[in-house]
Amino acid sequence: MTQSYKFLQTSVVVFKVLAWLALAVQVITGLILVVTGGEPVFVAGVDVPARVVGLLNFVAAALYFFSFSLMSHLLRLWLDIRAHQTGGAA
Q: What is the domain partition of the chain in residue ranges?
């Protein structure tokens, strides 16, 4: 692949790392909030229990992981399509 696609190749790796990092951080944060509880969190005029916020962290972890992973796979797909069109190797 030519030098012009190095940024996209690097972006694939960055999005994979961000996906796993977001998953790990959100799950650890969610576990801490679910296990320890804590003070209610004031969200949009309502006091939400900290354990509910911890559970919502698990949902956010799944969404972030899916989003970053999808972006990584789409970039990889575009690079593969480009490589097959030009006859070059990725």
A: 11-86
